[in-house]
Amino acid sequence: MLRKKLLVQLSLAALMLVPQTMKAQFNWPYKNVNGTLVTEVPQREAGQQSAINLATPKLKVVRVAFVGLGMRGPGAVERWTHIPGIEIKALCDYEKNRADDCQKYLKKASMPAADVYYGENGYKDLCKRTDIDLVYIATDWIHHFLVAKEALLNGKHVAIEVPSAMNMREIWELINLSEKSRLHCMILENCCYDFFELNSLRMAQEGLFGEVIYAQGAYRHELSPYWQHYWKNGPDDKLGWRLRYNKDFRGDVYATHGLGPIAQVLNIHRGDRMRTLIAMDTHSFNGKKLVEKFDGKACENFRNGDQTTTLIRTEQGKVMEIIHNVMTPQPYNRMYQLTGTKGFANKYPTEGYALSASDLKDAGVKPSSDKISGHEYLKEADMKALVERYTSPIVKKYGDEAKEVGGHGGMDFIMDSRLVYCLQNGLPLDMDVYDLAEWCCLAELGSISMDNGCLPVEVPDFTRGHWNEVKGYKHAYASPEDEAKALADAKAFTAELKAKGAKYWAKMDKKGGNKKGKK
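Below the sequence we write its predicted C-alpha cells.
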C-alpha cells in the first residue's frame, strides 16, 4: 500500500514537471446549441481594456532579446542587425552552443556581443531583466506560449513565431495578458509581407476586385526533407517535436500562413469577423507511416489527417477556405486566392490577376486590348502595369533592401522592419493579439468540429464586442516629420553602437573570444 502511494506521488510529481501547456491541450469547454458547437468566452475582468489599436510609448531604441535559436531564430538575429535603432541584448536557447553561435552575426555587424542564456529556465532569467523592451520568440511550438507569458508578466512586448498559441486556453490567456499589461503581443506571420500579398491587399483596399466574397489560403508543404531536423529531446526522442505534435493533435495546426493574408483582405475584426467554421480531414496515411518508420513500432493512433480543410463563414457573408497538408507529395502552395465581384487574384500555382479591360481602365491602367475579360489571366504587360500602379507603400519602402537581406525572399525582413518602425513611432502594430487569436484558433476549433461529426463551430468574438469599431484593415504610418526624426535617431544610435562594437570585438579577439554566458 505504501509502495502504491509512493508511486502515485511520483507520478503526480512527474506531471508537474510537464509544461502546463502540454497538459491543457484541446480541452476548452463547449456545448451544443441547436446543432452548433459554442465554446466558452471568458468575461473581461473589471478594469481590463480592449487592445484594439493599442499604441505604446515611442521607443527611440528597441532593445530586443531572442529566445529559440534553432531553425528560424538565427535568421532573425542576422536580419535585425540590418535594422537601425535596435540593440540585441540577449540570446537564449536550450542548448548553449546555439546561442553562442549567433554572436557571429553581431560581430559581423560590429555590434557588441549579447548576453547568453541557456537551459530549461534560461528564458525566465532573461525575462526578468529591466533593459529589454521586446522578446522575439522562435522556439518549438510547445514553448511559444510559455516564453510569451513569462515576458508579458515581466513587462516586455512579445513577437511570437507561428503558430503563436496552440489551443484556446493559451489564446485567451495571451489576450488577457496583452489587455491587462497594455503590451503588444504580435504574431510573426511573415506571409502577410510577401510582395504579391501586399500589392494585392492594396488593390483590394482600393476596390479593384469589387467585393471580395471568397478567399482561399493554404499550407501545402510536404515536409519529408525536414522531419528529422526538428529538435529532439534526447536520444529516446525518435520523432521530434513537430511530428509528435501532428501525431497527438487533430485540426489545422499550422493555419496562419494561409489564413493571415486573406483575413487582412476581409477586414477581420475591423468591420467583419469569423462567425462559423466547419472542418473535415482525411485519415492519416503518410503521417502514420512516418511515425512507424522513425519509431520502429506500430502507430495505433495518428490524430492529424494527412489533409485538413476548414471552411469559415464571416459575419458579412464572406467565405474562407483553409487547407493544411504537410504529408503528401505536391509542389509548395499557399494558394492565396481572392474571388471578388469584379476581379480575381491568385498566387499559387499561377501568379496573376483576372480583370476586364473596362475595370483596368477604371483602375487607371491602360489595357493592351479592349478584349481583355475576367475569364483569363492578364498578359504579362498588363499585369506589370497593374502592379506598378498599385505597388504597396511598404514594398516601395523596404522591397529592394528586403531582397538583399533575405528571409523567405525578403518578407521576413519587411515583417521585422515594420515591427521596429511601429515601436519606434508609437503606432499600433500591423498584427495584434486578436489576429493571433483568430489565426491560431483553427487547430482546437477544427478538432472540436471533426470530433463531433464535422458539426459547425461558432468562432468566438475574441475582441469581446469590439470587432466592428475599426472600419477596414490598414497599416499605421507616422507623419513624415515624425518618421524622419525617428529614423535619424535610429541611425545615430546604430552608428554609435557599431563604433562601440568594433572596439569590443577587437578587444575580445586579443583575449581569445567572447565569454558571455548565463544559465
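Residues 191-393+433-458 form a domain with the Dihydrodipicolinate Reductase; domain 2 fold (CATH 3.30.360.10).
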